[in-house]
Amino acid sequence: xxxxxxxxxxxxxxxxxxxxxxxxxxxxxxxxxxxxxxxxxxxxxxxxxxxxxxxxxxxxxxxxxxxxxxxxxxxxxxxxxxxxxxxxxxxxxxxxxxxxxxxxxxxxxxxxxxxxxxxxxxxxxxxxxxxxxxxxxxxxxxxxxxxx
Length: 148
What we know:
Blueprint: H1 2-24, H2 28-41, H3 44-49, E1 51-59, E2 67-70, H4 72-80, H5 83-86, E3 91-100, E4 103-112, E5 115-126, E6 129-136, H6 139-145
């Protein structure tokens, strides 16, 4: 009987551990970092899969990629395809991250040729996917660094 109890406890521990690992891929911080990872790799299909169908992407300011975009296809076309044109060596490096409820706040270092600044990004998570993204960026520095 003691052996059966140990066996049952061991099996339950494995199931809980496996479920926790699966859920880890959907936790807010992991989703935000998966978005950065797929963006940096240029993997638009994988990036789109982790966002809701009504995904809302907002960049304040008056730059070529600024505005509110709804839907992943629009973001890919009007933001992801635009950034390398004006900032060919664009790179984001996380400085710090805070998760509060369903919001992930990521303070980043933003670099490119003639660009060395910081930015704050806010992700909103809904039902295990990214529902919105808002960027608070140093648009003056970005404008000065734009390739014409």
